Predict the structure.
Amino acid sequence: MPSFSDITQRDWLRALSKLGVRVVTGKLGGKGSHIKVFIPNIDRPYTIQTVLNKLINEKIFKKLVLAGFSEERIWEALQ
């Protein structure tokens, strides 16, 4: 299981795709290298920046748990 401080934007991009979350990159996505994520059961799109730290990764993880994904399923997708 990876540590929250080791997770990169690319890791989240792969994991979210495995979880079936809609991810938008490029001009329709976030600004510059940011990506826009549309998480089910969350009213607003969520932006994931390029440079991540432990706190930001924990927030993304909690947002996915609030949306109804199990912690085990999220960790599986991150590996």
